[in-house]
Amino acid sequence: MIRDITIGQYYTTDSTVHRLDARTKVIFTFFYVVALFVVKDYSGFLPLVSIFLFSVILSKIPFRYILRGLKPILFIVLLTVLFNFFGSVGGKVIFKWGILRMTDEGLRRGTFLALRLILLMLGTSMMTFTTTPTSLTDALEHIFRPLKVIKVPVHELAMMMSIALRFIPILLDETDRIMKAQQARGADFESGNLFKRAKALLPIFIPLLISAFRRAFDLAQAMEARCYHGGEGRTRFRPMKYKMADYITFLLAIMLLGVSITLRVIR
């Protein structure tokens, strides 16, 4: 499962989506998430799914690679579905076993929330798949620049988010290496009940924690050696500039949100 986690990973290729301005992708993702929570029935998912599939085609990212990132959250999705299946009140009872009772309203709500979680994960992952951490940092700093008026450290917050995203795949690779090293020494992470498996993971967490602190210390020293003092007076090798494709994407985002609101109102 460690190798299936794709959060924060950048997929290197040349595509229309990759060449979009990072600010465009951040804003479009925001509109996508808002539209996702605006819809209230299954028909509202149709434009969202269509936009997602269209962006996958344009990004040239294998669909299997994108779906692989769903494996780590399947447990959360399943738990959400079960809570709604047997926890919803109202509707016609379609299944009953002891104190457990499933209604048609619970079935509809559980399936609806599962689809929303899956589309949320897939849609937000497309932004990290097609945007480098450096570009994402610059985009967030540009978008939240007005907050500097009220003394919000925008650059520092964007840098922290970028470092966190960059460290996710690094720590996942480190965890995979530690697990393989422990298995070569006879460690067993798959047999036994849940508590035994959790106890068997302790030899992984300690060296992983030490490695994370070591990497953080090395990064801090490297930034100090390069005289890093935040965003003041900082220039960029590749300045951000909107192109025609970015304006078309903005228009598409507004249309997507408008269609979602319209479908919610008329139903």
Can you describe this structure?
Strand 1 and strand 2 form a beta hairpin. This protein has helices spanning 16-19, 22-38, 45-59, 63-68, 74-87, 104-130, 133-143, 154-184, 194-200, 202-225, 244-266; strands at 93-97, 100-103. It has 267 residues and is mostly helical. The chain is globular, with a radius of gyration of 22 Å. A two-stranded antiparallel sheet has the order 1-2. Helix 2 (22-38) runs antiparallel to helix 6 (104-130), helix 5 packs antiparallel against helix 6 and helix 7 runs antiparallel to helix 8. The two termini are 40 Å apart. Helices cover 67% and strands 3% of the residues. The chain has 11 helices and 2 strands, in the order αααααββαααααα.
Major beta sheet summary:
2 strands, antiparallel
* Strand/helix succession: HHHHHEEHHHHHH
Give the overall pLDDT as a whole number.
80
* Share of helix, binned: 55-70%
Enumerate how many helices there are, as a single number.
11
* Quaternary structure: single chain
Strand order of the largest sheet: 1-2
How many beta strands in the DSSP annotation?
A: 2
Strand content: under 5%
Give the distance, in angstroms, between the N- and C-terminal Cα atoms: 40 Å
Structural class: mainly alpha
Rg, Å, rounded: 22 Å
Q: Uncertain spans, ≥5 residues at pLDDT below 50? A: none
Outline type: globular
